[in-house]
């Protein structure tokens, strides 16, 4: 699936006005690579900050999230997929991002028989090769997948696999989002989430109160996945504990 409002892409492709700087001034092309709609939330204010600063940001969801009913009570399948894609669009637009990609690979199955020629992993890797070739910066899950989710881990592993094979001249930066050790939110739902030694989290993206508000609006979109209290409280909780004004990342290389 590919859909865009066109505004950001047209801006990136439009000819520079007279007196403008050369091509080095073109917007940074950022691709956020995730497994499911709602996976953007652990880095949501960073995405909003990049978009606000003029980066050409796209979000690639590998799946529609149709296997995860969350709090919806819906049966996994087409109706849930449609709902979650709608929630994804709500979230990316709240973050100021105009381009959503993907949502076409099977949810919960990215790791199955990954070495087979016709596997979901092989198909996803081909999609990544195409998108990474026109990206400057990739943001994705770390090897832990946040809390060990197999689809999250596969998205991280495949991103790493593709980027490490690219020539240095065209290789985008690859950053893994991370939670600094000692800053895990004190809630039972996150007790099993992985943390990272702060010394490894050498890249940060600062955000403003407006970016945090955008993240709150994105969280509010995911009605099928979280109850109302969780949607309202998640971003303030992350802001007060693991972010505190900056989202943290670890370089892959």
Describe the structure.
α2 packs across α7 and α3 runs antiparallel to α7. This protein has a single domain, classed as Rossmann fold. α2 links the parallel β2 and β3. Helices cover 37% and strands 17% of the residues. It is built from eight helices and eight strands, in the order βαβαβαβαβααββααβ. The protein has 253 residues and is of the alpha/beta class.
CATH class value: Alpha Beta
Assess the beta-strand content as a share of residues.
15-25%
- Can you tell me the CATH topology? Rossmann fold
Average pLDDT reading: 91
- Indicate the percent of residues in helices: 25-40%
Number of spatially distinct domains: 1
Extract low-pLDDT stretches.
1-21
**Number of DSSP-assigned strands:** 8
* H and E order: EHEHEHEHEHHEEHHE
Main sheet makeup: 8 strands, mixed
Major sheet strand order? 1-4-3-2-5-6-8-7
Instruction: Please work out how many helical segments DSSP would assign.
Output: 8
Question: Which of globular, elongated, flat, extended, rod-shaped describes the shape?
Answer: globular
CATH architecture: 3-Layer(aba) Sandwich
Please state the structural category.
Answer: alpha/beta
Cα end-to-end separation: 30 Å
Q: What do we call the CATH homologous superfamily?
A: LmbE-like
Q: What radius of gyration results from the CA coordinates? A: 18 Å
């Amino acid at each position: 699936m590919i859909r865009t409002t066109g505004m950001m892409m047209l801006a990136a492709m439009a000819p520079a006005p007279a007196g403008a700087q050369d091509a080095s001034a073109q917007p940074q092309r950022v691709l956020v690579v995730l497994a499911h709609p709602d996976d953007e939330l652990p880095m949501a204010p960073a995405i909003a900050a990049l978009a606000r600063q003029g980066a050409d940001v796209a979000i690639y969801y590998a799946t529609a999230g149709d296997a995860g009913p969350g709090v919806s009570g819906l049966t996994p399948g087409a109706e849930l997929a449609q709902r979650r894609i709608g929630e994804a669009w709500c979230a990316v637009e709240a973050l100021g991002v105009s381009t959503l990609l993907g949502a076409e690979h099977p949810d919960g199955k990215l790791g199955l028989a990954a070495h087979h020629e016709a596997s979901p992993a092989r198909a996803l890797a081909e999609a990544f090769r195409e998108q990474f070739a026109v990206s400057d910066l990739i943001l994705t899950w770390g090897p832990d997948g946040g809390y060990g989710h197999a689809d999250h881990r596969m998205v991280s592993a495949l991103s790493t696999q593709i980027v490490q094979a690219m020539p240095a001249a065209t290789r985008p930066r690859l950053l893994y989002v991370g939670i600094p050790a000692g800053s895990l939110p004190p809630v039972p739902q996150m007790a099993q989430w992985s943390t990272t030694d702060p010394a490894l989290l050498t890249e940060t993206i600062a955000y403003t109160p407006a970016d945090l508000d955008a993240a709150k609006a994105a969280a509010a979109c995911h009605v099928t996945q979280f109850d109302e209290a969780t949607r309202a409280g998640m971003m303030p909780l992350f802001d007060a504990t693991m972010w505190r004004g900056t989202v943290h990342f670890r370089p892959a290389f």
